[in-house]
Fold:
Amino acid sequence: LATVAEVELAEATEIAVGTLGAFNLRTKDAAQLTTNLTRVNDVLAKTTTSSNTTMQTLIDTIKDSGPVAKMAGADIETFAAMTGTLGNASIDASRAGTALKNIFTRLAAPTSTNIKLMRRMGISTKDADGNLRDVIDILGDFEKALDGIGTAERTAILSEVFGLRAVAGTEVLLSKGAKGLREYRDQLRGATGASESMADVMRGTLMGSFKTLNSAI
Structure:
């Protein structure tokens, strides 16, 4: 991770450990912790190389809204896919964090007015056990329900449900579409070994060799 992100080892460690905490992946089981750490490294590396995000902007977004996403039931791959999509639309870390925080909190705990509004649209946010449904599935329902609706009414609905500060981010995710978000998430879930292979390529360059020599010294 330090090699791929081009940061010091101490900073890479802080990033990885912080992400483990944000998504409740810390454990006393050494083998499982290693698995979780590798998963985090691979997802972070894959996201930064497949979207217009840097490691720093990705971490800032995780710090801002990662724990909220986890409490709402989203895994790191879902969160990273949404963050990468927002990054590709030039939405910076601060605005992305605000948008994602609003999306998760307002879907998990909608107001009575919004519950009625979503019912009229045929959208349910919770499953039979009272847990928040997969956020990408819910966005897919919004995508279908808003199809053909005028831009003014569409903006008004999104503003009401997600708040003014999350409208732009929500619109970007809806434009990507549930299918696109799922495909991106699947890519991240299949990113096993990504950080190691990327690091190997980077270390294989002349500059990588100089850095390795400098590190050894």
In short: The CA atoms of residues 122 and 145 lie 7 Å apart.
